[in-house]
């Protein structure tokens, strides 16, 4: 396996929206999905001659700095919540004004993370889906760094607290990652095959092949640990703490048998074609994804714009269909838009006909999400679900689970095939109830 890890620009916020408030806040959700120039520039922000003027909440494109632009965005609607990961500036300029219009009781039910996050993009070749979730997060887990993990069609994204960025780099260097000479060595790291093998071999006896994500001091609100407690020495100890905490908070693993998910990507409008386009003949092809280089995938500048936007780089039918799907308040839809990556969707199979030919992906395979409702835990503790993924990968190693993962603001979902999800529930049930 050869993995490349790069930090994306900008700081991110996580937003939790209860499902009953989703219709009320649909407008700001759609606003952050729009090309930014159009969504920032409001009619009242134009002078008499039609030229834009700046205000506190709306600015012309030329006034946007690099941190105002959109390197990463995820919007997820699940049976538990609506979750948004967006630029911190967008949480402030778009969502906070919308929240101020709500009744105080309703406003208090929406949560915006107090600390900011940065996103790492992980591109790996020759690594199965389950191994990615487990092995890529292990170095950070053993360093005590909390993460949110989002699997997309071509890449994996790991969100870490901004204040822990230096610790992340140190943890990756300690586990065999190397800086690569790509013109910006401060933001790109790679893990050669030898580095991964050395790391896994050195931790084989300590259980570090499985993963668990914790946060220093994150247990002090829920058990007897304190912020000064030593970090667990191996993955087994980490997982023991994880399931003890989940059990104490009465967190259960649930599967909605009516949900059948598929993983898809948006078509590109450029001449570049994606290697390994998915065929319905392979039921697991969507999980054995091809490697995609960090190249510009769009069609260049168009329509007089001085900056390429998402609409310039994808089939605009996808955008129209996405807005239509969001307007229906879908039971499950997760869309990720990331810098230099084609759009990625994990969605209820019942929604696929709505998108027509605007998607590429596996038409025949069906996935089932295992949900953990973590509303009783603080934001930083939600990464704990990666520990559940690690336990499943270990307990189901003989079955070779094709496992992926979706973090949301107040919950997490382990994504497996429908057959493997039943086995996973059999494993998790006793661990969460204490019948072990």
UniProtKB/TrEMBL annotation:
Q: Where is this region: Disordered?
A: 43-65, 207-235
One biological process term from GO is: carboxylic acid biosynthetic process
**Pfam family, any one:** ACT_7
Query: Could you tell me which SUPFAM superfamilies the record lists for this protein?
Result: ACT-like
Where does the CASTOR ACT domain start and stop, copy by copy? 113-172
* Compositional bias (Polar residues): 48-63
Q: Under what name is this protein listed?
A: CASTOR ACT domain-containing protein
